[in-house]
Amino acid sequence: xxxxxxxxxxxxxxxxxxxxxxxxxxxxxxxxxxxxxxxxxxxxxxxxxxxxxxxxxxxxxxxxxxxxxxxxxxxxxxxxxxxxxxxxxxxxxxxxxxxxxxxxxxxxxxxxxxxxxxxxxxxxxxxxxxxxxxxxxxxxxxxxxxxxxxxxxxxxxxxxxxxxxxxxxxxxxxxxxxxxxxxxxxxxxxxxxxxxxxxxxxxxxxxxxxxxxxxxxxxxxxxxxxxxxxxxxxxxxxxxxxxxxxxxxxxxxxxxxxxxxxxxxxxxxxxxxxxxxxxxxxxxxxxxxxxxxxxxxxxxxxxxxxxxxxxxxxxxxxxxxxxxxxxxxxxxxxxxxxxxxxxxxxxxxxxxxxxxxxxxxxxxxxxxxxxxxxxxxxxxxxxxxxxxxxxxxxxxxxxxxxxxxxxxxxxxxxxxxxxxxxxxxxxxxxxxxxxxxxxxxxxxxxxxxxxxxxxxxxxxxxxxxxxxxxxxxxxxxxxxx
Length: 481
Ligand code: GLU
Fold this sequence. Notes:
Layout: E1 5-6, E2 17-20, H1 30-45, E3 49-54, H2 64-76, E4 86-87, H3 92-104, E5 108-111, H4 115-127, E6 153-156, E7 163-168, E8 172-177, E9 185-187, H5 195-205, E10 210-214, H6 218-230, E11 237-241, E12 244-245, H7 261-267, H8 271-280, H9 293-299, E13 310-311, H10 314-327, H11 330-343, H12 351-364, H13 371-382, H14 391-396, H15 399-413, H16 420-434, H17 439-450, H18 458-465, H19 467-477
Parallel strand pairs: 1-7, 2-3, 3-4, 10-11, 12-13
Antiparallel strand pairs: 5-6, 6-9, 7-8
Protein backbone atom coordinates (compact mmCIF):
# COMPACT_ATOMS: atom_id res chain seq x y z
CA UNK A 1 0.00 0.00 0.00
CA UNK A 2 1.25 3.48 -0.87
CA UNK A 3 2.77 5.05 2.19
CA UNK A 4 1.38 8.51 1.65
CA UNK A 5 -2.34 8.74 1.84
CA UNK A 6 -3.35 12.05 0.45
CA UNK A 7 -6.81 13.46 0.24
CA UNK A 8 -7.31 14.90 -3.21
CA UNK A 9 -10.47 16.31 -4.70
CA UNK A 10 -13.31 13.86 -4.78
CA UNK A 11 -13.47 12.30 -8.17
CA UNK A 12 -16.29 10.41 -9.72
CA UNK A 13 -18.90 12.70 -8.20
CA UNK A 14 -20.59 15.03 -10.60
CA UNK A 15 -22.36 17.44 -8.34
CA UNK A 16 -21.72 18.70 -4.86
CA UNK A 17 -23.35 16.71 -2.07
CA UNK A 18 -23.05 17.82 1.54
CA UNK A 19 -24.65 16.52 4.67
CA UNK A 20 -25.45 17.46 8.21
CA UNK A 21 -24.97 14.47 10.49
CA UNK A 22 -26.14 15.30 14.01
CA UNK A 23 -26.06 12.86 16.87
CA UNK A 24 -29.40 13.43 18.57
CA UNK A 25 -28.49 14.73 21.98
CA UNK A 26 -31.84 16.26 22.89
CA UNK A 27 -31.66 19.56 21.05
CA UNK A 28 -30.19 21.30 18.05
CA UNK A 29 -27.06 22.95 19.32
CA UNK A 30 -26.08 26.41 18.06
CA UNK A 31 -22.86 24.96 16.63
CA UNK A 32 -24.80 22.21 14.89
CA UNK A 33 -27.19 24.74 13.43
CA UNK A 34 -24.27 26.69 11.98
CA UNK A 35 -22.82 23.48 10.52
CA UNK A 36 -26.17 22.69 8.92
CA UNK A 37 -26.43 26.23 7.54
CA UNK A 38 -22.93 26.17 6.02
CA UNK A 39 -23.50 22.75 4.47
CA UNK A 40 -26.81 23.82 3.02
CA UNK A 41 -25.52 27.11 1.63
CA UNK A 42 -22.43 25.47 0.16
CA UNK A 43 -24.46 22.77 -1.57
CA UNK A 44 -27.11 25.13 -2.89
CA UNK A 45 -24.53 27.72 -3.97
CA UNK A 46 -22.95 25.04 -6.12
CA UNK A 47 -26.26 23.71 -7.39
CA UNK A 48 -25.83 20.53 -5.37
CA UNK A 49 -27.65 18.63 -2.69
CA UNK A 50 -27.79 19.04 1.06
CA UNK A 51 -28.68 15.89 2.97
CA UNK A 52 -29.52 14.98 6.52
CA UNK A 53 -28.26 11.94 8.37
CA UNK A 54 -29.30 11.24 11.92
CA UNK A 55 -26.45 9.47 13.70
CA UNK A 56 -28.65 7.57 16.06
CA UNK A 57 -26.55 4.53 16.81
CA UNK A 58 -26.31 5.36 20.50
CA UNK A 59 -29.57 3.75 21.51
CA UNK A 60 -29.72 5.25 24.95
CA UNK A 61 -29.44 8.86 23.86
CA UNK A 62 -31.17 8.65 20.51
CA UNK A 63 -34.76 8.76 21.62
CA UNK A 64 -37.58 9.73 19.24
CA UNK A 65 -37.92 12.94 21.28
CA UNK A 66 -34.24 13.80 20.79
CA UNK A 67 -34.56 13.23 17.05
CA UNK A 68 -37.76 15.27 16.91
CA UNK A 69 -35.99 18.14 18.68
CA UNK A 70 -33.32 18.25 15.96
CA UNK A 71 -35.85 18.14 13.14
CA UNK A 72 -37.90 20.80 14.88
CA UNK A 73 -34.92 23.10 15.25
CA UNK A 74 -33.96 22.68 11.60
CA UNK A 75 -37.43 23.33 10.33
CA UNK A 76 -37.90 26.37 12.58
CA UNK A 77 -34.63 27.76 11.21
CA UNK A 78 -35.86 27.12 7.69
CA UNK A 79 -33.04 24.70 6.89
CA UNK A 80 -34.71 22.16 4.67
CA UNK A 81 -32.79 19.30 3.12
CA UNK A 82 -32.94 17.14 0.02
CA UNK A 83 -34.01 13.54 -0.27
CA UNK A 84 -34.94 11.16 2.48
CA UNK A 85 -33.43 11.51 5.90
CA UNK A 86 -30.90 8.74 6.51
CA UNK A 87 -31.06 7.04 9.90
CA UNK A 88 -27.69 5.57 10.61
CA UNK A 89 -29.07 2.88 12.92
CA UNK A 90 -31.03 1.39 10.02
CA UNK A 91 -27.86 0.80 8.03
CA UNK A 92 -26.01 -1.45 10.45
CA UNK A 93 -26.10 -4.46 8.16
CA UNK A 94 -24.53 -2.47 5.33
CA UNK A 95 -21.80 -1.19 7.66
CA UNK A 96 -21.01 -4.72 8.83
CA UNK A 97 -20.90 -5.93 5.26
CA UNK A 98 -18.15 -3.40 4.45
CA UNK A 99 -16.11 -4.61 7.43
CA UNK A 100 -16.44 -8.18 6.21
CA UNK A 101 -15.45 -7.16 2.72
CA UNK A 102 -12.27 -5.55 4.03
CA UNK A 103 -11.60 -8.72 5.96
CA UNK A 104 -12.04 -10.84 2.84
CA UNK A 105 -9.73 -8.51 0.90
CA UNK A 106 -7.01 -8.82 3.53
CA UNK A 107 -7.34 -5.15 4.48
CA UNK A 108 -8.74 -5.92 7.89
CA UNK A 109 -8.22 -8.70 10.38
CA UNK A 110 -9.74 -10.43 13.36
CA UNK A 111 -8.30 -9.35 16.67
CA UNK A 112 -8.81 -11.69 19.61
CA UNK A 113 -7.48 -9.56 22.44
CA UNK A 114 -9.37 -9.96 25.67
CA UNK A 115 -10.56 -6.83 27.47
CA UNK A 116 -7.85 -7.41 30.10
CA UNK A 117 -5.12 -7.62 27.48
CA UNK A 118 -6.34 -4.38 25.91
CA UNK A 119 -6.44 -2.65 29.25
CA UNK A 120 -2.83 -3.72 29.95
CA UNK A 121 -1.74 -2.55 26.53
CA UNK A 122 -3.37 0.83 27.02
CA UNK A 123 -1.82 1.29 30.39
CA UNK A 124 1.60 0.46 29.08
CA UNK A 125 1.20 2.78 26.10
CA UNK A 126 0.20 5.59 28.41
CA UNK A 127 3.08 4.94 30.75
CA UNK A 128 5.46 5.11 27.81
CA UNK A 129 3.73 8.15 26.34
CA UNK A 130 2.81 6.41 23.12
CA UNK A 131 -0.21 7.63 21.12
CA UNK A 132 -0.87 4.19 19.74
CA UNK A 133 -2.89 2.26 22.28
CA UNK A 134 -3.16 -0.99 20.37
CA UNK A 135 0.07 -2.63 19.24
CA UNK A 136 -1.31 -4.56 16.26
CA UNK A 137 -0.47 -7.95 17.74
CA UNK A 138 -3.17 -9.76 15.75
CA UNK A 139 -2.34 -8.22 12.38
CA UNK A 140 -0.53 -11.27 11.15
CA UNK A 141 -1.24 -13.82 13.80
CA UNK A 142 -3.03 -17.07 13.06
CA UNK A 143 -6.58 -17.17 14.49
CA UNK A 144 -5.88 -20.71 15.66
CA UNK A 145 -3.83 -19.15 18.44
CA UNK A 146 -6.89 -17.38 19.79
CA UNK A 147 -8.46 -18.20 23.10
CA UNK A 148 -11.76 -19.91 22.39
CA UNK A 149 -13.64 -17.75 24.88
CA UNK A 150 -12.81 -14.46 23.15
CA UNK A 151 -15.08 -13.26 20.34
CA UNK A 152 -13.00 -11.29 17.85
CA UNK A 153 -13.40 -7.71 16.69
CA UNK A 154 -12.50 -6.67 13.15
CA UNK A 155 -9.73 -4.10 12.88
CA UNK A 156 -8.48 -2.15 9.88
CA UNK A 157 -4.99 -3.07 8.75
CA UNK A 158 -3.86 0.52 8.65
CA UNK A 159 -0.61 1.60 6.97
CA UNK A 160 2.38 1.45 9.34
CA UNK A 161 4.59 3.96 7.60
CA UNK A 162 4.24 7.29 5.87
CA UNK A 163 1.58 9.75 6.80
CA UNK A 164 -2.07 10.40 6.32
CA UNK A 165 -2.66 13.83 4.88
CA UNK A 166 -5.76 15.93 4.63
CA UNK A 167 -5.86 18.96 2.38
CA UNK A 168 -8.50 20.64 4.44
CA UNK A 169 -10.42 23.42 2.72
CA UNK A 170 -10.34 25.51 5.89
CA UNK A 171 -7.37 24.25 7.90
CA UNK A 172 -5.01 23.76 5.00
CA UNK A 173 -2.68 20.76 4.90
CA UNK A 174 -2.78 18.65 8.03
CA UNK A 175 -0.88 15.43 8.39
CA UNK A 176 -0.33 12.71 10.93
CA UNK A 177 2.35 10.04 10.92
CA UNK A 178 0.71 6.68 10.41
CA UNK A 179 2.81 5.39 13.29
CA UNK A 180 0.56 7.44 15.54
CA UNK A 181 -2.63 5.76 14.45
CA UNK A 182 -3.42 2.29 15.67
CA UNK A 183 -5.57 -0.19 13.81
CA UNK A 184 -9.09 0.98 14.51
CA UNK A 185 -11.91 -1.36 15.33
CA UNK A 186 -14.51 -1.54 12.57
CA UNK A 187 -16.82 -4.19 13.91
CA UNK A 188 -17.19 -4.96 17.61
CA UNK A 189 -17.22 -8.46 19.02
CA UNK A 190 -21.02 -8.37 19.18
CA UNK A 191 -21.13 -7.60 15.46
CA UNK A 192 -22.08 -3.93 15.80
CA UNK A 193 -20.26 -1.42 13.61
CA UNK A 194 -18.21 1.37 15.16
CA UNK A 195 -18.97 5.02 14.66
CA UNK A 196 -15.94 5.53 12.41
CA UNK A 197 -17.00 2.76 10.06
CA UNK A 198 -20.61 3.94 9.94
CA UNK A 199 -19.68 7.52 9.06
CA UNK A 200 -17.42 6.51 6.21
CA UNK A 201 -19.81 3.97 4.72
CA UNK A 202 -22.70 6.40 4.95
CA UNK A 203 -20.75 9.29 3.47
CA UNK A 204 -19.72 7.08 0.61
CA UNK A 205 -23.15 5.60 -0.02
CA UNK A 206 -24.80 9.02 0.16
CA UNK A 207 -22.34 10.33 -2.42
CA UNK A 208 -21.05 13.02 -0.09
CA UNK A 209 -18.42 15.13 -1.86
CA UNK A 210 -17.72 17.68 0.90
CA UNK A 211 -17.64 16.98 4.61
CA UNK A 212 -18.15 20.32 6.35
CA UNK A 213 -18.21 20.07 10.14
CA UNK A 214 -16.74 21.33 13.39
CA UNK A 215 -12.98 21.01 13.81
CA UNK A 216 -13.52 18.76 16.83
CA UNK A 217 -13.83 16.07 14.16
CA UNK A 218 -10.51 16.81 12.50
CA UNK A 219 -8.69 13.95 14.20
CA UNK A 220 -11.45 11.55 13.11
CA UNK A 221 -10.82 12.62 9.53
CA UNK A 222 -7.43 10.85 9.53
CA UNK A 223 -8.89 7.48 10.37
CA UNK A 224 -11.81 8.07 8.08
CA UNK A 225 -9.37 8.85 5.28
CA UNK A 226 -7.55 5.57 5.92
CA UNK A 227 -10.83 3.76 5.64
CA UNK A 228 -11.88 5.47 2.41
CA UNK A 229 -8.54 4.56 0.91
CA UNK A 230 -8.72 0.96 2.08
CA UNK A 231 -12.06 0.67 0.28
CA UNK A 232 -10.70 2.43 -2.82
CA UNK A 233 -13.51 4.93 -2.54
CA UNK A 234 -13.31 8.51 -3.76
CA UNK A 235 -12.36 10.73 -0.85
CA UNK A 236 -14.64 13.58 0.03
CA UNK A 237 -13.07 16.98 0.57
CA UNK A 238 -12.95 18.01 4.18
CA UNK A 239 -13.65 21.44 5.62
CA UNK A 240 -13.24 21.62 9.39
CA UNK A 241 -14.70 24.79 10.80
CA UNK A 242 -13.34 26.29 14.02
CA UNK A 243 -15.78 25.85 16.88
CA UNK A 244 -17.84 28.71 18.24
CA UNK A 245 -16.52 30.27 21.43
CA UNK A 246 -18.26 32.29 24.11
CA UNK A 247 -18.04 36.09 24.27
CA UNK A 248 -15.06 35.68 26.63
CA UNK A 249 -13.16 33.61 24.09
CA UNK A 250 -13.49 30.37 26.08
CA UNK A 251 -14.96 27.21 24.61
CA UNK A 252 -18.73 27.31 24.54
CA UNK A 253 -20.29 25.90 27.65
CA UNK A 254 -23.48 26.11 29.63
CA UNK A 255 -22.36 29.19 31.47
CA UNK A 256 -22.44 31.11 28.18
CA UNK A 257 -26.19 30.72 28.13
CA UNK A 258 -28.54 28.97 25.79
CA UNK A 259 -26.95 26.09 23.94
CA UNK A 260 -30.05 25.01 22.05
CA UNK A 261 -31.77 26.68 19.11
CA UNK A 262 -35.19 26.27 20.72
CA UNK A 263 -34.07 28.53 23.55
CA UNK A 264 -33.34 31.31 21.05
CA UNK A 265 -36.81 30.88 19.60
CA UNK A 266 -38.27 31.10 23.09
CA UNK A 267 -36.26 34.24 23.82
CA UNK A 268 -37.92 35.87 20.83
CA UNK A 269 -35.40 35.71 18.01
CA UNK A 270 -36.59 35.43 14.44
CA UNK A 271 -35.29 32.52 12.38
CA UNK A 272 -33.97 34.82 9.65
CA UNK A 273 -32.06 36.85 12.25
CA UNK A 274 -30.49 33.73 13.67
CA UNK A 275 -29.61 32.48 10.18
CA UNK A 276 -27.90 35.79 9.41
CA UNK A 277 -26.14 35.70 12.77
CA UNK A 278 -24.94 32.11 12.43
CA UNK A 279 -23.73 32.84 8.91
CA UNK A 280 -21.44 35.55 10.25
CA UNK A 281 -20.05 33.25 12.94
CA UNK A 282 -16.90 32.20 11.17
CA UNK A 283 -17.70 33.41 7.66
CA UNK A 284 -17.57 36.89 6.21
CA UNK A 285 -18.16 38.80 3.03
CA UNK A 286 -16.33 42.10 3.24
CA UNK A 287 -17.91 44.22 5.94
CA UNK A 288 -21.45 43.05 5.30
CA UNK A 289 -23.40 42.36 8.46
CA UNK A 290 -26.95 42.24 7.22
CA UNK A 291 -27.06 39.50 4.65
CA UNK A 292 -30.29 38.27 3.11
CA UNK A 293 -30.90 34.62 2.29
CA UNK A 294 -30.53 35.40 -1.41
CA UNK A 295 -27.20 37.15 -0.87
CA UNK A 296 -25.99 34.33 1.37
CA UNK A 297 -26.79 31.83 -1.34
CA UNK A 298 -24.97 33.91 -3.90
CA UNK A 299 -21.90 34.69 -1.81
CA UNK A 300 -21.29 31.68 0.40
CA UNK A 301 -18.19 29.65 -0.25
CA UNK A 302 -15.63 27.93 1.92
CA UNK A 303 -12.71 30.21 1.05
CA UNK A 304 -14.13 32.92 3.29
CA UNK A 305 -14.45 30.67 6.35
CA UNK A 306 -12.04 31.94 9.00
CA UNK A 307 -9.42 29.83 10.72
CA UNK A 308 -9.89 31.18 14.22
CA UNK A 309 -12.90 30.49 16.40
CA UNK A 310 -15.82 32.89 16.12
CA UNK A 311 -17.12 34.43 19.33
CA UNK A 312 -20.73 34.73 20.31
CA UNK A 313 -21.82 38.34 20.44
CA UNK A 314 -25.30 38.78 21.82
CA UNK A 315 -25.39 42.52 21.13
CA UNK A 316 -24.86 41.73 17.46
CA UNK A 317 -27.60 39.15 17.52
CA UNK A 318 -29.95 41.67 19.15
CA UNK A 319 -29.17 44.26 16.52
CA UNK A 320 -29.79 41.83 13.70
CA UNK A 321 -33.00 40.70 15.32
CA UNK A 322 -34.13 44.30 15.68
CA UNK A 323 -33.44 44.82 12.00
CA UNK A 324 -35.45 41.77 10.95
CA UNK A 325 -38.31 42.72 13.26
CA UNK A 326 -38.47 46.13 11.60
CA UNK A 327 -38.49 44.43 8.21
CA UNK A 328 -41.30 42.05 9.13
CA UNK A 329 -44.92 42.44 8.14
CA UNK A 330 -47.09 43.70 10.99
CA UNK A 331 -49.53 40.79 10.70
CA UNK A 332 -46.70 38.28 11.07
CA UNK A 333 -45.35 40.08 14.12
CA UNK A 334 -48.77 39.96 15.76
CA UNK A 335 -48.85 36.19 15.33
CA UNK A 336 -45.28 35.82 16.58
CA UNK A 337 -45.85 38.08 19.58
CA UNK A 338 -48.98 36.25 20.73
CA UNK A 339 -47.27 33.25 22.35
CA UNK A 340 -45.00 35.65 24.24
CA UNK A 341 -48.00 37.63 25.45
CA UNK A 342 -49.68 34.43 26.60
CA UNK A 343 -46.50 33.30 28.30
CA UNK A 344 -46.45 36.52 30.31
CA UNK A 345 -49.67 35.43 32.01
CA UNK A 346 -51.87 37.80 30.12
CA UNK A 347 -55.42 36.80 29.39
CA UNK A 348 -55.75 35.21 25.93
CA UNK A 349 -55.84 37.93 23.32
CA UNK A 350 -59.24 38.20 21.62
CA UNK A 351 -59.91 39.44 18.10
CA UNK A 352 -60.34 43.03 19.29
CA UNK A 353 -56.94 42.71 20.95
CA UNK A 354 -55.39 41.39 17.75
CA UNK A 355 -56.77 44.29 15.78
CA UNK A 356 -55.31 46.65 18.31
CA UNK A 357 -51.93 44.87 18.14
CA UNK A 358 -51.93 45.13 14.37
CA UNK A 359 -52.59 48.89 14.62
CA UNK A 360 -49.88 49.24 17.25
CA UNK A 361 -47.16 47.32 15.42
CA UNK A 362 -45.84 50.16 13.28
CA UNK A 363 -45.18 52.14 16.44
CA UNK A 364 -43.80 49.25 18.48
CA UNK A 365 -41.45 47.52 16.11
CA UNK A 366 -38.82 50.24 15.70
CA UNK A 367 -37.88 49.82 19.35
CA UNK A 368 -37.97 46.04 19.86
CA UNK A 369 -34.87 43.86 19.84
CA UNK A 370 -36.77 40.63 20.44
CA UNK A 371 -40.31 39.37 20.19
CA UNK A 372 -40.29 39.26 23.95
CA UNK A 373 -39.54 43.00 24.03
CA UNK A 374 -42.26 43.52 21.49
CA UNK A 375 -44.78 41.56 23.54
CA UNK A 376 -43.71 43.33 26.70
CA UNK A 377 -44.21 46.72 25.08
CA UNK A 378 -47.53 45.66 23.56
CA UNK A 379 -49.02 44.06 26.66
CA UNK A 380 -50.84 47.17 27.87
CA UNK A 381 -52.73 47.40 24.58
CA UNK A 382 -54.41 44.07 25.21
CA UNK A 383 -54.60 44.19 29.01
CA UNK A 384 -58.04 43.67 30.47
CA UNK A 385 -59.65 46.57 32.35
CA UNK A 386 -59.11 47.83 34.88
CA UNK A 387 -55.46 47.73 33.90
CA UNK A 388 -52.95 47.53 36.69
CA UNK A 389 -50.82 50.57 37.47
CA UNK A 390 -47.12 50.75 38.14
CA UNK A 391 -46.13 52.59 41.33
CA UNK A 392 -45.02 55.56 39.22
CA UNK A 393 -48.29 55.62 37.31
CA UNK A 394 -50.19 55.49 40.58
CA UNK A 395 -48.25 58.51 41.76
CA UNK A 396 -48.94 60.45 38.59
CA UNK A 397 -52.65 59.80 38.96
CA UNK A 398 -53.12 62.18 41.86
CA UNK A 399 -56.54 63.44 42.79
CA UNK A 400 -55.88 66.60 40.82
CA UNK A 401 -54.78 64.69 37.76
CA UNK A 402 -57.78 62.39 38.04
CA UNK A 403 -60.11 65.33 38.15
CA UNK A 404 -58.48 66.75 35.05
CA UNK A 405 -58.97 63.48 33.22
CA UNK A 406 -62.62 63.60 34.22
CA UNK A 407 -62.93 67.05 32.64
CA UNK A 408 -61.14 65.93 29.48
CA UNK A 409 -63.15 62.75 28.99
CA UNK A 410 -66.41 64.30 27.75
CA UNK A 411 -64.52 66.38 25.19
CA UNK A 412 -62.91 63.20 23.87
CA UNK A 413 -66.30 61.53 23.88
CA UNK A 414 -67.63 64.17 21.53
CA UNK A 415 -64.70 63.99 19.16
CA UNK A 416 -65.90 63.05 15.69
CA UNK A 417 -62.62 62.00 14.09
CA UNK A 418 -60.48 59.62 16.18
CA UNK A 419 -57.03 60.03 14.77
CA UNK A 420 -53.70 61.24 16.10
CA UNK A 421 -53.95 64.75 14.61
CA UNK A 422 -57.46 65.34 15.92
CA UNK A 423 -56.56 63.94 19.32
CA UNK A 424 -53.50 66.11 19.62
CA UNK A 425 -55.44 69.22 18.67
CA UNK A 426 -58.15 68.44 21.22
CA UNK A 427 -55.77 67.64 24.09
CA UNK A 428 -53.69 70.75 23.38
CA UNK A 429 -56.83 72.90 23.36
CA UNK A 430 -57.85 71.31 26.65
CA UNK A 431 -54.43 72.04 28.24
CA UNK A 432 -54.73 75.64 27.10
CA UNK A 433 -58.21 75.97 28.53
CA UNK A 434 -56.89 74.63 31.83
CA UNK A 435 -53.88 76.93 31.70
CA UNK A 436 -51.42 74.02 32.05
CA UNK A 437 -48.53 72.67 30.06
CA UNK A 438 -49.29 69.71 27.77
CA UNK A 439 -47.19 67.39 29.95
CA UNK A 440 -49.48 67.86 32.90
CA UNK A 441 -52.30 66.19 31.04
CA UNK A 442 -50.22 63.91 28.82
CA UNK A 443 -48.59 62.10 31.74
CA UNK A 444 -51.88 61.33 33.56
CA UNK A 445 -53.33 60.17 30.24
CA UNK A 446 -50.36 57.89 29.78
CA UNK A 447 -50.61 56.54 33.31
CA UNK A 448 -54.33 55.83 33.01
CA UNK A 449 -54.19 54.35 29.51
CA UNK A 450 -50.98 52.33 29.70
CA UNK A 451 -50.50 51.76 33.43
CA UNK A 452 -46.96 53.12 33.26
CA UNK A 453 -44.98 56.33 32.87
CA UNK A 454 -43.32 55.36 29.59
CA UNK A 455 -44.98 54.34 26.36
CA UNK A 456 -45.17 55.20 22.69
CA UNK A 457 -46.50 58.71 21.97
CA UNK A 458 -49.72 59.29 23.86
CA UNK A 459 -51.76 60.26 20.79
CA UNK A 460 -50.56 57.11 19.05
CA UNK A 461 -51.65 55.11 22.09
CA UNK A 462 -55.10 56.69 22.05
CA UNK A 463 -55.37 56.11 18.32
CA UNK A 464 -54.56 52.43 18.72
CA UNK A 465 -56.84 51.88 21.70
CA UNK A 466 -59.78 53.47 19.94
CA UNK A 467 -62.39 55.78 21.34
CA UNK A 468 -64.45 53.48 23.53
CA UNK A 469 -61.49 51.70 25.15
CA UNK A 470 -59.76 55.03 25.78
CA UNK A 471 -62.85 56.46 27.46
CA UNK A 472 -63.38 53.29 29.47
CA UNK A 473 -59.80 53.29 30.76
CA UNK A 474 -60.06 56.97 31.60
CA UNK A 475 -63.23 56.39 33.58
CA UNK A 476 -61.41 53.66 35.56
CA UNK A 477 -58.84 56.20 36.73
CA UNK A 478 -60.44 59.58 36.74
CA UNK A 479 -62.19 61.22 39.63
CA UNK A 480 -65.23 63.33 39.16
CA UNK A 481 -64.51 66.73 40.64
N1 GLU B 1 -22.50 13.02 14.56
C1 GLU B 1 -21.41 13.93 14.72
C2 GLU B 1 -21.81 15.04 15.67
O1 GLU B 1 -22.98 15.24 15.92
C3 GLU B 1 -20.97 14.55 13.40
C4 GLU B 1 -20.24 13.59 12.55
C5 GLU B 1 -19.75 14.17 11.24
O2 GLU B 1 -20.17 15.27 10.86
O3 GLU B 1 -18.97 13.49 10.58
O4 GLU B 1 -20.95 15.70 16.21
